[in-house]
Specification:
The chain is an alpha+beta fold and about 400 residues long. It has 14 helices and 19 strands. It has helices spanning about 10-25, 35-40, 50-60, 65-70, 90, 100-115, 165, 235-245, 250, 295-320, 320-325, 325-350, 355-370, 375-385, and strands spanning about 1-10, 30, 45-50, 70, 75-80, 80-85, 95-100, 120, 125-130, 135-140, 145-155, 175-190, 200, 210-215, 215-225, 260-275, 275, 280, 290. Helix 1 (about 10-25) packs parallel to helix 6 and helix 10 packs antiparallel against helix 12. The radius of gyration is 21 Å and the shape is globular. The structure holds adenosine-5-diphosphoribose and P-hydroxybenzoic acid. P-hydroxybenzoic acid binds near residues 211, 293, 294 and 295.
Length: about 400
């Protein structure tokens, strides 16, 4: 079998790239290790930058989003009992969109199926061969049968644990990593959100986040210890702890109910450089991870896809390799800014186990400066709504 592009990974990165290429008449096969249902069972953040929404529109998959999404013109930041509003719209004239990543992925799968594009699920033993030559190919096993696809380019969209990054020889790669000494315990509950906008809270008991999916579905998180397991946290214990970490005015009106999902995620910052090796291009979680504070994971994946898509269109439509040659440099320049912002928000709002009295004062001063200074709020708003591509 032959395809112009092989996309490894049917998460949001791979599907978005596939859909954009399809609209330009560039054929791309998607190889996914799991099933569609498995991919759609993953619960991830729900904030979309306007750049990502623009790409979904360009890919022709924004109809449901346009009908069902919520626009958020700002966010609340709490420090202990105090809370203040960062008004993106007023500060910089921009907003973000609330629409779950799971829904984005579902829309992309629906569009892919409607377009009749090829997705091969349950693939095993994916191996990328000859990425540093002019004739790469990918081998894999499907239902126990060995298969091979020859191609021009390979997009490694297979997440943090995929094969693509590992295909780049270790001597070529440099990896940068920061592991945070805590996790996020998250629950989804069929209750109305406590507030119209998100509340990011720093409290002496640790971080908390009040988010949502829609008017009757809420998503809440609390910072937890890495040694905690989901079984350690009954729903009642979760709600009690959340209420202690958010200002009283919010705690008093919080509607609690049974959780319909509960999970713990570790927090990590990670970047690999370069993001290209020959004809293999890494995108999204395959190349970088951010802690979820600020919801940059999917949005940073989207900007990678934008740069790669433009580069591939330039090659196929004009025979010009400038875009793919500069892919890694362009993508990384934006990735590192998202890494910085996610690290900053995480540092600003969490309690680190080894914080000294001095560190706590500095953190408090950082939050106070943000509360009092319009320029500081503009910097936050500019990053939160998303830097330009
Ligand atoms: N072969 C084929 N598919 C693979 C392989 C492999 N060897 N390894 C992993 N995959 C698949 C996974 O099953 C998954 O569906 O690749 C997909 C990668 O999807 P994600 O991990 O969701 O990564 P990505 O598409 O880059 O999405 C970006 O934004 O909010 C963040 O981390 C969040 O998922 C998120 C991301
Ligand atoms: C979420 O809704 O899941 C969410 C929102 C904002 C974040 C992280 C997660 O920063």
């Amino acid at each position: 079998m032959r395809s112009q592009v092989v996309i490894i990974g049917g998460g949001p990165s791979g599907l978005l790239l596939g859909q954009l290429l399809h609209r330009k008449g560039i054929e791309a096969v998607v190889l996914e290790r799991k099933t569609r249902d498995y991919v759609l069972a993953r619960i991830r953040a729900g904030i979309l930058e306007s750049g990502m929404v623009g790409l979904l529109r360009e890919a022709g998959v924004a109809d449901r989003l346009d009908r069902e999404c919520f626009r958020h013109d700002g966010t609340l930041i709490a420090d202990g009992a105090e809370m203040f509003h960062v008004d993106f719209k007023d500060l910089i004239g921009k907003s973000v969109i609330l629409y779950g990543q799971t829904e984005v992925t579902r829309d992309l799968y629906d569009a892919r199926e409607a377009a009749g594009a090829t997705t091969i699920f349950n693939v095993e033993d994916v191996v990328i061969e000859g990425a540093d030559t002019d004739a790469p190919h990918v081998t894999f096993t499907e239902h126990g049968q060995a298969r091979r696809i020859d191609c021009d380019y390979i997009a490694g969209c297979d997440g943090f644990h995929g094969v693509s990054r590992q295909t780049i020889p270790a001597c070529v790669r440099t990896e940068y990593e920061k592991v945070y000494p805590f996790g996020w315990l998250g629950i989804l509950s069929e209750t109305p959100p406590v507030n119209d906008e998100l509340i990011y809270a720093n409290s002496e008991r640790g971080f908390a986040l009040c988010s949502m999916r829609n008017a009757s579905l809420s998503r809440y998180y609390i910072q937890c210890s890495l040694s905690d397991s989901v079984e350690d946290w009954s729903d009642a214990a979760f709600w009690d702890e959340l209420k202690r970490r958010i200002p009283e005015e919010a705690a008093e009106i919080l509607v609690t109910g049974p959780s319909i999902e509960k999970s713990i995620a570790p927090l990590r910052s990670f970047v690999t450089e370069p993001m290209r090796w020959g004809r293999l291009f890494l995108c999204g979680d395959a190349a970088h991870i951010v802690p979820p504070t600020g919801a940059k994971g999917l949005n940073t994946a989207a900007s990678d896809i934008h740069y790669l898509y433009e580069g591939l269109v330039q090659v196929y439509e004009a025979g010009d390799r400038e875009g793919i040659d500069r892919y890694s440099e362009r993508a990384l320049s934006r990735v590192w800014k998202a890494e910085r912002f996610s690290w900053w928000m995480t540092t600003l709002l969490h309690r680190f186990p080894d914080m000294s009295a001095f560190d706590l004062r500095i953190q408090k001063a950082d939050i106070a400066f943000l509360r009092e200074n319009r320029d500081a709020q503009k910097v936050m708003a500019t990053n939160y709504v998303g830097l330009p591509y």
